Amino acid sequence: MSNTTSSETIPASPTSTGDHEREPAADRAYRHVKTGLLDGSYPDGHLLSEGEIAQTLRMSRTPVREAFLRLQSEGFLRLYPKRGALVVPITPAEAHSLMEARLTLESFAIDKLAALGRQRLAAIGRELLEHPACHPGELSDAETHEADRAFHARLVAAADNPVVTDLYSALRDRQLRITATARTHESSRRAAVTEQHNGLATALRDGDAALAKHRLREHLAHTMRAIGISEHLPHLDT
Amino acid sequence: MSNTTSSETIPASPTSTGDHEREPAADRAYRHVKTGLLDGSYPDGHLLSEGEIAQTLRMSRTPVREAFLRLQSEGFLRLYPKRGALVVPITPAEAHSLMEARLTLESFAIDKLAALGRQRLAAIGRELLEHPACHPGELSDAETHEADRAFHARLVAAADNPVVTDLYSALRDRQLRITATARTHESSRRAAVTEQHNGLATALRDGDAALAKHRLREHLAHTMRAIGISEHLPHLDT
DNA sequence: TGTATCTAAGATGCATACAAGTTTGGAGGT
DNA sequence: ACCTCCAAACTTGTATGCATCTTAGATACA
């Protein structure tokens, strides 16, 4: 048996190039269900079945099953053997936990950048000040959200820790579902959020890690208030 | 169509009761591959195929595929379309990232407990002082490792944030693979590790969060040194 | 009415078959 | 010796069928 095919030539592209030339069925299923989850088509506690989705998308259950597994690992679904896929109910407690986790990881990024040197903080601060999320403009709701996501993702990525970056992006997806569910009129918050982003980026540019973390915490607390959950967040520095 | 079966009776047990009465094939496949990954049977860069594993375990590719998907989501494998499953190579950089992430999450736990009140810190400190990981004893390597894992997991769980607890447990599994790969004679470290656990628990019991975080950082740095990676970890408090 | 039981419907778990992409190695020309 | 091309042997992607488990609801009975 020729099983031990070790140390081959390194495969080229793990992530698809983004081209959607005949997208795999599993990916379509994944996107379809996730979209439904995010826009509220599948409410909390809803029980999905593989066959149901498969029929809708005109494909077999196999790729749908794969999509379900992915969504379970991301915390969106909970699979019950022989029963179905439960849309994980969003409790205020979970939303709170998510926010705490975000605060933790973003604070880590700031701390690490600070440990790497004030100039690193300043560099990312300057970069973020140029970011769309720091400038009011006529953006659609979706664009605004995407800008916000990119802003925070950029900060975390700057810490140059791929493990943390991955964890963080998974959290953001979950939070997206929460904010989408608790439909708050984004537009009214928008000005405040832009201002907060500016404040955070400015603190970074000035090399003030403590202030940056403080403003980050305020920013997240503001979001929590907007979606109506207890805005208390622990202080992460002694 | 009777699709909208919302708000059903809440399903009972998501996690199997632990009984292994005819364990599902997918679980067997998962355990088999993960074991092979952890004990080094599948070295870095090895290319696994579904069929290979399926043949070994005398089952079809379907459950093996499911196991591969799970392992990919946990960061052990990287699936290449039509090519195979690559055993993710462990680079020193990744080991470092993992440790930073662990430090971040465990430090969060300490901070949150401190924010919840000194007595909460003390309570978990007292509990951890009783833990096997704090007492030298005649334990096998596996038992020692399990105790260590449980010790840290308990600390994180005490912060009462399920999201963080989940993230942390995933990280621990990945670290297990690293320490298993870089076979260091655990036994020689054991006394020192036990001492470090004691020191950490004692600091917690005394309500000294800053000292606890310091000792945690030292503890993790010690581990990093033992497996031969750069032991530099950022200070997470300003 | 209330309750135990049985049955049918619907769900997943897994095996199997086939389609399609990728790699590899050699035949054949230069 | 060195390309070029092609075919066979891999791989995964997906569809389909059947076994099994779960559960809701009808039915029979007290």
TrEMBL record, chains A, B:
Pfam families in UniProt: FCD, GntR
Every HTH gntR-type domain range: 23-90
Chain segments annotated as transmembrane: none
Keyword Transcription regulation: yes
GO molecular function: DNA binding; DNA-binding transcription factor activity
Residue spans of biased composition, Polar residues class: 1-17
Source domain of life: Bacteria
Protein name: DNA-binding transcriptional regulator, GntR family
